[in-house]
Design goal:
Radius of gyration: 17 Å
Strand order of the largest sheet: 1-4
Largest sheet: 2 strands, parallel
Number of helices: 3
Structural class: alpha+beta
Order of helices and strands: HEEEHEH
Amino acid sequence: MFTGIALTCYAVLYTVIEAADDYANKVKAAFPGNELPCFDMLMLGMGPDGHTCSLFPGHKLLEEKKLIIAPISDSPKPPPSRVTMTFPVVNNTRCAVFASCGEGKAEMVQVSRRTQPTHN
């Protein structure tokens, strides 16, 4: 029981574009003066197809270079509308930790271990 605590729930409906813009503004506020934020660490997952964040293999969003946060409305996996950091932001982090488990992801983990990293 939460006595003495007022809990307020706000339901704000954003379009995926508005949500991405809002998130980008918050990230920019946390990293003032930096065109490309540099997180100390990102804890990321990986899908069985190798996607991380909502950056899917072969998707045009992988080529995004201007936005730090981007909307995706044609995700190949549900849900179709998502908000994600872009590859330059993920690639610019000081330390990226990938947590991935399950038999369905084992092959992709092995593939990712054999692939040379790319840098912007």
